[in-house]
User: Fold this.
Amino acid sequence: MTLGNQLPKIITGTVPGPKGQSIVDRRAAACAKAIGCGYPSVMSRAEGAMFEDPDGNVFLDWVGGVGVTNLGYSNPEVVKAIQDQSAKFCHAMFNIYSHEGYVELAEKLNKIVPVKGDVRNTMFVCSGSEADENAVKIARAYTGRPNIIVFSGAFHGRTNLTMAMTAKKAYSIGMGPFPDGIYRCEFPYLYRAPKGMTEGEAIDYYIAKLENVFMESTPAEHCAAILFEPVQGEGGFVPAPIEYVKAVRQICDKYGILLIADEVQSGFARSGKMFTTEYWKEAGCPADIVTMAKSIAQGVPMSAVTARKEIFDKVPAGTIGGTYGGNALACAAALKVIEIMEREDYPAKARHIGAKISERYNEWKKEYKVVGDVRGIGSMLGIEFVTDQESKTPNPAIVKAIIQDAAQMGLIMENAGNYGNVIRLLAPLCMTDEQTEAGLEIFEKALVKNLNIK
Assistant:
């Protein structure tokens, strides 16, 4: 049986085993502690949704490199595409030389990324942070305005500008001063909306909060863009309600503001469509600019920004780009990733996995009073834990214990949310039904074990 078809299996009693612990110890001595790592797992090889450590323990990965491996680990077609390109050349800086891989990938994204406008352009950089930062630069260049509105719960990166845009300040402790011109609004987190409101009333409430930003922080005529994630990642896997997005689109059109969608984590089939913003476009509220990264190239560093051509045409020459943007290996990988996702209908795989897991999560919500909310789109799902369903008091302690115990049984999961009380699902979309069931069984065992933790 290949690794990709196996189920979780721990043979060392506890993890890491001796070989894995040796690598963990070497990491502690040689690598920056501030990078952080809360998991007792060491990857020696990986395939599909599974990885093996140096001691022979086999883990099911529900983190997927934080959304990087939607296609699974070590897909042979992607591996071959990278090998074939490396035999030709590994790098051609696009500011100096043209290469067909960059052009072909841009042409493909111009067709499939659901931004407003029929004639599109795409640029490539290397990380989600760079994509978001370039999107801001592009919006400022197009509008001639300085200010950006972002949201509570947002995560946009760790560069100086994107740390300012990111809400959770644990990611920017001691790193200031930060750039001016970034203003924050409350995100429509419906589970934690003021008590007693209907969904419609809550959306009106959050739209009023956005309108207040124009009075209290930045006048609309000074605002270049409103930027948010279609489904917040670090913020707790909170989807932006489509009626809210419609209202934001109307506000942007009214004031000449660009709408930027950060699809770094939610893109490439995760939501049950190739891009979550396809739902936006179908509802008549497409974004002006979409940023993407993570699963775009299956782990080869790559990110992208797509917008209509008239927006890009306002950007001064030389202000965007970079040495490694659109690297030849990354372009080859990304082209193959998209080909496979379209051919094998990966969005349908996401819907299938999401339906199975959300059904079980909702059963737990009825049975276990520590489960407060289940939400998400496709297989980008969050399950929020509370001390009790009435008070909705966040319960990060149980989440920490569940994740630790699940890892010891061969399931790797990760928390999210402002309070660290959400467990997020970012499993590779090639995960089999048997693996999905095995993961749910481990999760529930860890949950039951820790029910009394407050």
